[in-house]
Amino acid sequence: MTESDFKTLIYEIPEPHIARIRLNRPDRANAQDTELLYELNAAFDRAAHDDEVRVIILAAEGKHFSAGHDLSETDSAGAMRRHQTVGTMCGFGCAGAEAQMAREEEIYTGFCERWRNIPKPTIAAVQGKCIAGGLMLAWPCDLIVASDDASFADPVVSFGVGGVEWFQHVQELGARKAKEMLFTGEAIGAEDALKLGMVNQVVPREQLSEATLALARKIAVKSRFALKMTKLAINGVADASGRDIAMKNAFHLHQLAHTHNLKVFGMLIDPTGLPEATRKAMAARLAALDAGGTAN
Ligand code: ZN
Predict the structure, then answer these.
(1) Fewer CB atoms inside 10 Å of the end CB: C or N, the chain?
(2) 104 alpha carbon to ligand 1 midpoint, in Å?
(3) 255 in Cβ contact with 100 (< 8 Å)
């Protein structure tokens, strides 16, 4: 059964008790625009609210899992919705750092925390590149199955920001490897990710879908409530170590970086580290925003 009422993803029940969400912007390497993030949140909600669903798979169409946030999005201000998450009480009237922080609390850290805490097991199936914001889709999932061509990178230090908004790097990699990933911007391959405990399995690309389903099947026969309690207990270990406060600290530094870049470069990131095509797209976006008089 395939649900067709999403534009940027496919929601389906490939077999009983398993919901699968497939990101479906392969022509843009599944870059995340605002619409995709809201649709993904709605799809996770649908699976969470469906009593028949016991395991949720997040997969992606095309060569790459996700290239991260869609920096060429031209209507992000217009697409901003009323906030759904607690603590981001900022309406359409706010501007500057206040608006930027509220937006990112909503669609980045807010959604990622929400997805991390879905009371059902979630599995990400990752192929190809998983870059920056792409990590913020894979990491909130409980388990990750990677294909042998998968790689994971957060290159945003090159853009004048100290890591993506949902700062889970240390939890995933340990402090030393997290520093290496962020300082160098280099990608971690699937086999290295496996050794670091960042992914659960590495399988040949053509077996990714079936291997993920096989893992989901093993879990789907277990008690739903026992799975929920197990997830709460394990996530609670990280929370007891202060993950939440550390995450907020990193997020506030991230906002400081955006504000600094806006003052120095006139945009939220330092453009000197960007590929030329992205730089041009962002310049066009800025020009469009200037013409439209939009502050965000
Ligand atoms: Zn940001």
Answers:
(1) N
(2) 6
(3) yes
Please identify which residue in the block is written with the tokens 């970086």.
257
Query: Do the Cβ atoms of 163 and 185 come closer than 8 Å?
Result: no
Residues 237-246 as b/e (b if ≥16 CB within 10 A, e otherwise) read: eeeeeebeee
pTM of the model: 0.90
Which residues surround the ion ligand 1 when the cut-off is CB under 5 Å? 104, 165
Sequential pLDDT tens for the chain (296 residues): 445 689 999 999 999 999 999 999 999 999 998 899 999 999 999 999 999 999 999 999 999 999 998 877 654 444 444 444 444 555 556 677 888 888 899 899 999 999 999 999 999 999 999 999 999 999 999 999 999 999 999 999 998 999 999 999 999 999 999 999 999 999 999 999 999 999 999 999 999 999 999 999 999 999 999 999 999 999 999 999 999 999 999 999 999 999 999 899 888 888 887 778 777 776 676 666 556 544 33
User: Going by DSSP bridges, is the β-strand pair 9-15/2-3 parallel, antiparallel, or unpaired?
Assistant: antiparallel
| Cα 285 to ligand 1 centroid, rounded to whole Å | 16
Ligand 1 center–CA 176 separation, angstroms: 23
Q: Is residue 58 helix, strand or coil?
A: strand
Q: Which CATH number fits domain 3-290: 3.65.10.10, 3.40.720.10, 3.90.226.10, 3.55.50.30?
A: 3.90.226.10
Alpha-carbon gap, residue 38 to 35, rounded angstroms: 5
Backbone torsions φ then ψ of 12, nearest 5 degrees: -150, 160
Give the dihedral of Cα atoms 32, 43, 60, 77; nearest 10 deg.
Answer: -10
CB atoms within 10 A of CB 204: 10
What's the 258 CA to ligand 1 centre distance in angstroms? 7
